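Lecture notes, unit on protein representations.

Consider one protein chain, 623 amino acids long.
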Amino acid sequence: MPAFDIKEELKKLPNKPGVYIMHDEADTIMYVGKAINLHNRVRSYFRSNIGRGPQIDRMVKQIARFEYIVTDSELEALVLENNLIKEHSPRYNTLLKDDKTYPYIKVTVSEEYPRILFSRLMKKDKSRYFGPFTSAAAVKDTIELINKLYGLRTCNRVLPRDIGAERPCLNYHMKQCCGPCTGEVSKEDYRARIDMALDFLNGNYAVILKDLQAKMEAASEELDFENAAKYRDLIASVKVVAQKQKMTDSSMEDKDIVAIASDDNDAVVQVFFVRDGRLIGREHFYMTHVSENPQSEILGNFVKQFYAGTPFIPRQLLLPEPIEDMEIIEKWLTQRKGSRVYINVPERGQKEKLMELAAQNAELVLSKDKERIKREEGRTIGAVKEIENLLGIKGLNRMEAYDISNISGFANVGSMVVYEKGKPKKSDYRKFRIKTVAGPDDYACMHEVLTRRLLHGIEERHELQVRDIDAKYGSFTKFPDLILMDGGRGQVNICLQVLEELGINIPVCGMVKDDNHRTRGLYYNNVELPIDTRSEGFKLITRIQDEAHRFAIEYHRSLRSKAQVKSSLDDIPGIGPARRKALMKSFETIEDIRNASVEELSKVPDIPENVARQIYDFFHQTP
């Protein structure tokens, strides 16, 4: 590929809207932006003395090449910019830290006998949706209450096709479902129940409370105290749901009220969700890469990223201050929603009060979490810095630790645990079942584990290069910045031997234990380094060591358990997978099965008396 000449490429930029993508020397995407005019916007990055700020200056110095995608309009550029930021998470873009999906209450009104369901997605499927809500538990409680109040079905039967095809479920016998599957309830009567449920979901609680109160009093007068208590409990449940909707707005509109609090390093965005005029919940979101960015820019990035991912867009979005591209974002949201969306900055009245409340909440979250974040950073990033200083190395991000587990050489296994920035990365943990070593030889087992792990990484890297694939590093392809061995000189030398055999250079450190099996120091470069046992670095090393040991023991235990179950039960005539499973459900251990009588064994489901006798004889036969 010819060298990228930035000056020449700048001359070729078109005077059209589009998206530009900045790459560094490693071809990593550093920044994604949109422009009304690509020619003017991209060239502006390479002009001097224009007051861009230190962060942009740092980025510009790292630009090795750029690319661009022309679009027909600024709106298309906005959508494409959002998609690319979400896909690549560039380090110089302000990013929303959020992976939540919000729950809805779904009413399948298109079915002849509708149901009320919990849903994470809002689809165009002719159903009615209520929400989104911030609490999944509250949604489930509300659905359960409505089904009890109106006796609605919760089954997946296709009605009316399946009417009378099967026996009614337990809910029908408990009088919690009116039983449309029996044919006892007409379609019209069932639809009336659904209409009342929809009325309830729209916030009309007074009617149902009045009806329940009357039923409770009638049951009490007839001395039917069981039913009276049931109605009393339902009244209490309805009131709990009603009380969650105390804050109301006479406009009855759907709106989101967005406020922000920020300092030099962090930003928190608080959103109040108002649905049908009721405040149904709030949520806060952290924004990263905010250094030196004005609040309006952070707010604009939040709006674009958050509303690109949420399935529900309100009619109105209230912001504390204007944001860049407000009109184009409003147009984009209108397009996504399918009806007019307004972005406003309130200045007086109830809207302003709610904005102030949201801002206060954002400030509280930011201040409250400061100390927690500092403590967490001390335990993680701060601890990593301590280890860097102790060993005299830099750029320590990924650490891998290994351990071997066996009992007298039985089922040798190895574990690999991974820590990045001082935190466990469990998706990259790996287990190894030793293939080439028989007997208790920890050094040989460790040699095999490390060789397999590193060879796998080399092979994956080579395959990616051959196929010219730009893929994200996986757990094997990405090599560690430091390997931690659960032991001293011997384990470290085994690792160094494997690295030399494969031609790889990675620092290796041993976690040395004292006579009481407690970590006392680190073995590095043929020297045992003492470490302050009160330091965060020491505590992190101990956590990593314990985690590698736990992971290996857990894997070994699972293999041992499977082998024990197989050898003990599979040799018994008449015992297959189903009966073996039934036995292990009824008895906690093999020893419990061995000690059980024929009578106790025959009580296990699917174990007749003759099979119980065979099991008993198997364990009690004379050798």
